[in-house]
Design a protein that fits this description.
Blueprint (H helix, E strand, L loop, with lengths): L1 E3 L7 H13 L6 E3 L10 E2 L6 E2 H13 L14 H11 L11 E2 L7 E2 L1
Parallel strand pairs: 1-2
Antiparallel strand pairs: 3-4, 5-6
Helix pairs in contact: 1-2
Length: 114
């Protein structure tokens, strides 16, 4: 199994490499990719040659990955504040969390502030 996490930080060359690795591993290896939603990606990024549309490259590469036999896309919705508090309580072995200690930051994609 190969796990690629936070691929929303990938540049266009890395995305193309990911597609090539996935194609080369076809059938014998599980390739898992985790990323933020496409809407959160920057519009362009500087590459060695010239600025290139990251969004266009990511969409093209994502289509290539999902066209592979057995490919599956799973979208995880963000936790609600109540779900976040429940998860944190379980992670802390059901310790009681005092009042307003857990909040979701509106400036970042559902990061925990404690």
């Amino acid at each position: 199994m190969l796990l690629f996490d936070d691929v929303h930080h990938f540049d266009t060359v890395s995305w193309r490499l990911l597609v090539a690795v996935s194609a080369a591993a076809a059938g014998g290896l599980l390739v898992a990719v985790a990323m933020r939603p496409l809407a959160s990606l920057p519009d362009t990024v500087a590459t060695f040659a010239a600025p290139e549309s990251v969004a266009a490259c990511v969409r093209q590469c994502r289509r290539a990955l999902l066209s592979r036999p057995g490919a599956l896309s799973v979208v995880l919705e963000p936790f609600t504040p109540a779900e976040t508090e429940q998860y944190m309580a379980q992670a802390l072995c059901d310790a009681a969390l005092p009042g307003k200690q857990v909040t979701l930051s509106p400036t970042r994609q559902n990061c925990l502030n404690m």
